[in-house]
Amino acid sequence: MQKLVRLLSHLSQPQTQPLPSSMVQVHSRGGNFALQDGDSLYISSPNYPANYDSNANVLWVITMPEDCSLVLSVLSFFTENSYDQLTVSSESGADQSVMLIDRFTSHLAPFNRTYAPSTLMRIQFRTDRSVVYQGFEAELRASCSAETTTASQTTGLTTQDYNDLTSEVPWTIGVNVDSTGGPIALGEGQDYFIASSSFPSNYPSNATILWQVTTSDRCAIHITFMAFSTEPIYDYLVVGSQDVTPKNMVHRWTGEEIPAPLYLNSNQVWFLFISDSETEEQGFVAKLQAMCSNSTASIEEVRLVDGDVPQEGRLEVLYQGQWGTVCEDLWERTNAEVVCRMLGYEGADLEYSTTDLWWLIKGSGPILMDNVRCQGNESSLDECSHLGLGVHNCDHSKDVGVTCRTGSEANPSIDNSAIIRLVNGNRPSEGRVEVFRGRSWGTVCDDYWGIEDANVACKMLGYERAELAYREAKFGEGDGAILLDDVSCTGREPSLFACYHSDFADCSHAEDAGVKCLETSGRDLSLA
Predict the structure, then answer these.
(1) Least confidently predicted of 66-80, 104-118, 311-325
(2) CATH homologous superfamily of domain 26-159?
(3) Alpha-carbon distances of 278 from 180, 230, 271, 274, rounded to whole Å
C-alpha cells in the first residue's frame, strides 16, 4: 500500500423520446402533487424542448400513500455537466429530515429508476448562471404493488435543511455511507455510497482509505459524485480497475469541482483516497451503481473517416447499427493505441480533435463515447472506461481523430506522394516541402527544421535520406496555408505528421522549409 501511495503522489442536441401522442400536460414550473397507485405526472425543465433558464430553481413535491414507490422514467436529459442538475430526495421523520437519493447531470440516455417506498418525494432542478442546454423530460409514476415497492431499496445521505447540494448547508452522514474502506460486494441494481472520513466534517490529515468493489461479471460500475472538495494536487481520490497497482489506475480527482459521472466497464474496481499532512477539506461523497445487462452492448466496429490517407481521420464507432463519433474529453495516446490495433495497425502516431486541428472535419449524427480512458493494453475500446455508450456532454467541435502508425508491412498500399511533394527544385529530389491536409496543399515552417526532419520528408518520398535541409524559402515562397510548424523529428518516424509539431504556425512564407534528397549514398549531411 505505501508503495502504491508513493507511486500515485489531467453540442449536439440529444435524441429525444417524445411524450405519448395523447399530449398530456407537462409541468415545468414545479408544485405540489398527490399521486395514487398507477397515477403518472409528466415534468420537464422550464421551456423544454427549448433551452432552460439560467439560475432556475424548480421543485416538485410528490405525496403518495404508504408503501408506494416512485418510478422515475427519464425520456431525455441534457444539462451542463456538474453545474446544472436534477436531484431526487425523500422526507421522513417528525423533523422532516431529507434523504438525498439521486443526482443527475450531463447528457444521459433514457432510463428508469424505482425508489424505495416513501410518502413524500422531492424532485428539484437547479441551474447556475451561465451555460444553458435543452434540459430534461420525465414521467413520475406511483407504484404500490408488492413487486415494485421492494425493487430498489435505495439509501442515501441526510441533511436537516436541503436547499442546495453545493451550498455550505451541513450534512448529516447516514449509516449506509462507507467512509472506512474495505471490500464491497455490489449487487445488481444496488446503490452504495462511499465518502471520505468524517464527512461532512473535514477529513483528517495523512488519510489512506482503500475500497475494493466487485460485482457480477455481466455488470459494470457507474460512479456519480454528490460532493467533492479536496486540497488541490495534494489530497486526491484515485480509481482503478482489476488489481490495485499504479498501472491499473484509470482516473485521479483533486480540487473543488464536482467530477462528471464515470462509467467503468469492469466488474472489479478500486478507490483510493489519500490526504497529506497539512490542509484538510470537507472531502467527497460518491454513489456506486452496478449497471447490469443480460445482453452485452458493445462496439461492433471502428473506422477513420475524412482523412487524407486511410490510416488517419476522424474516429467513428459502430453501435447498434449506427456510426457515431467520440468526444475528446480525457482522450490520450493510450486510447489511440487501442483504436489503431483494432484497425490492424502497429500503433498510434498522433491523437487530436477538431478543437486542435482546423482541417479535421466535424462529424454528424450521434456522439457515442465520452470520457474514454484506456490503459493502452486493451484489445477493444469496449474494455476501456467511459460514460456509457451514447452518454456524453460534448458537441461535434470536440470529435477526436487518430493517425495510426503503418510500419513497413501494416499497409503497403499507402502512396505518400499523395500527401507530400517538393516544389520549385531543379530536379525531382529537391524543392520546397509541401504537405496535403484538409483538401489543400500547404507549406512547412522552418522553425526547428533540421536534417532529421528532412530525412523523414525524403523517406516519405521514397529516397534513402536527405542530403540538405533548407530554411528561409530557398526554393521560393509558397502560397496558401502554412500547415506545419515547429517540426521536430528523431528521423525514425514514418511521416512528418508523426513528428512533434505545432498545427498553428506563427510564420510567414519567407520561412518555408525545403530539402534536397540523396539520390546516391555516401554524402555528408548538412543544413543549408
Answers:
(1) 104-118
(2) Spermadhesin, CUB domain (2.60.120.290)
(3) 21, 12, 22, 12
DSSP code, position 135: E
Q: How far apart are the first and last CA of the chain?
A: 56
CATH superfamily of 301-410: SRCR-like domain (3.10.250.10)
DSSP 441: E
Q: What is the pLDDT of residue 407?
A: 60
Domain map of the chain by residue range? 26-159, 173-292, 301-410, 416-527
Q: Is the pTM of this model over 0.70?
A: no
The mean predicted confidence, pLDDT, of the chain is: 78
368: left (phi > 0), else alpha (psi -120 to 50), else beta?
A: alpha
Correct CATH for 173-292 of 3.90.580.10, 2.60.120.290, 3.40.50.1010, 3.40.50.150: 2.60.120.290
- Give the pLDDT confidence of 7-24 residue by residue, as tens digits: 444 323 333 344 443 446
Sorted by sequence, the CB contacts under 8 Å of residue 242 that are 6+ apart come out as 248, 266, 268
**Per-residue cell: 271:** 478507490
